[in-house]
Structure formats: C-alpha cells, structure tokens
Amino acid sequence: MSLTLTLDFQYTTTMEKLWSALTDSSKLAKWTMENNFKPIVGYQFQFRAQPTEFWDGIVEGEVLVVEPPNCLSYTWGTGDERHTVVWTLQDVGEGKVNLHLEQSGISNQQALGGAKYGWTNWCGDLEQLLSA
Predict the structure, then answer these.
(1) For residue 98, what is the enclosing H or E element?
(2) Taking the model in full, what pTM does it have?
C-alpha cells in the first residue's frame, strides 16, 4: 500500500520569488536543510541534516520535472524508501500564490504523519523567508 500526502499553502508573494525559494540551493537551505540541489532534470542531489542514532541525516533525490515557475518534481528518500515530491505553483490573484505539495510513495501512516509534520513546519519557515 502506498500513501500520498497532499498539502496546500498560500503565500503573499510572486510566482518568481516562490519558485526561487524552491529551486535556489542557498534559499532552499534557509527553510529546509543544507543541500546541493540544482533545478536540472536528471540531477542527483542530497539534503543533509544532523545525523541521529536512527538516521544518517541524508535525503537522496533526483530531479524529475522542472517547468518554471509552475511545477517542480523530484524523488525524495532515505535508505530503500523513495517518494516522489511534486510542487505546483498557482497564482491565485491579489498578490497570492498557492503552493501545492504532493508526496507519493509513502509506506505507512507513521511516515505520512512525519512527512506532514515536517513539510508543515518547513513551509512555515518558507513563509518567513518570503516575507523577509
């Protein structure tokens, strides 16, 4: 059984500024983790966090889709588990942009809850970055 997480966040910003926060490695690091991300289809990257006794702190990924400034997709995983993350940006008018997240391939409810918790916190940090 594979589960899918879907979340929507609305930001008062421009499509270009939000796209940059999703694809520029240094900006991405300010709201997620240190990384060597590049928005190039086929590019393999890593997000790096402090290792713990349960996790080496590395998330591996490969860029699947880059369609500026509307859609970005990549694989996301640790160990043998790989998910697909899709970000869809939509200008909803009045200076607001909707950011839709879909993360598929999640193996169980605990992992789904962890992903929801993590992305919700990170997207709160993203809001602070965009308003700075």
Answers:
(1) strand 96-106
(2) 0.94
